[in-house]
Amino acid sequence: MDSELATAIAVYVVESVKKHDAYCGGATKVAILRAIKISAAESLTSRYSIGSPSALDMLASVPQYNLPPCTVFSKDEVEKLVEIVSTMDNKTKKQRHKIIQQALRKETANYFKDMMKDLTPKTRKKPKTL
Predict the structure, then answer these.
(1) Could you give phi then psi for residue 67, rounded to 5 degrees?
(2) pTM summary value
(3) What are phi and psi of 39, to 5 degrees?
(4) Residues forming beta bridges with residue 72, ordered by sequence position
(5) pLDDT above 90 as % of the chain
(6) Is 113 a domain residue?
(7) Residue 98 lies in a domain
(8) What is the mean pLDDT of the chain?
(9) Which of 1, 12, 7 is nearest to 82 (CA)?
(10) 41 Cβ partners below 8 Å, 6+ apart?
(11) Is 80 domain-assigned?
(12) Does 64 score more than 80 pLDDT?
């Protein structure tokens, strides 16, 4: 899963919890953490001893590549993401409810049929009288 979709899902979860938990609230804060990519130079130093002339020559010719390890969203960026997620949640709600309802009917039909079979008057044992 890419970080953009994961971020949108995380915002959806946080916003959903805030709707249902009286102790959750306030502004949602978002940051994306990324793994630090090893630069080509660091990769080379792991293959050669630092003091060797060949490692020093290679280090001098390799550009550094460092990705910032964290992107923190501004308040406006988070509010826009919350708006997008909320809009999509509302647009797809009826469709999701229908899918869940159909799946539950299908998956529970035999379970309830078997359970109710045991409760029919023909198979039900009469209670003992005292």
Answers:
(1) -90, 135
(2) 0.55
(3) -70, 160
(4) 31
(5) 47
(6) no
(7) no
(8) 79
(9) 12
(10) 58, 59, 62, 64
(11) no
(12) no
Q: Is there a domain that residue 41 lies in?
A: yes
Q: CB of 28 within 8 A of CB of 74?
A: no
**Cβ atoms of residues 8 and 32 within 8 Å:** no
In angstroms, the CA 28 to CA 83 distance is 12
Closest CA to 78 of 2, 6, 27: 27
Burial class (CB in 10 A: 0-12, 13-18, 19+), 53: exposed
Q: What is the tens place of the pLDDT at every residue in 14-47? A: 999 999 999 999 999 999 887 666 565 555 555 5
C-alpha count within 13 angstroms, C-beta hemisphere, residue 47? 10
Q: Which domain holds residue 47?
A: 35-68
How many domains does the chain divide into?
Answer: 1
pLDDT value of residue 37: 61
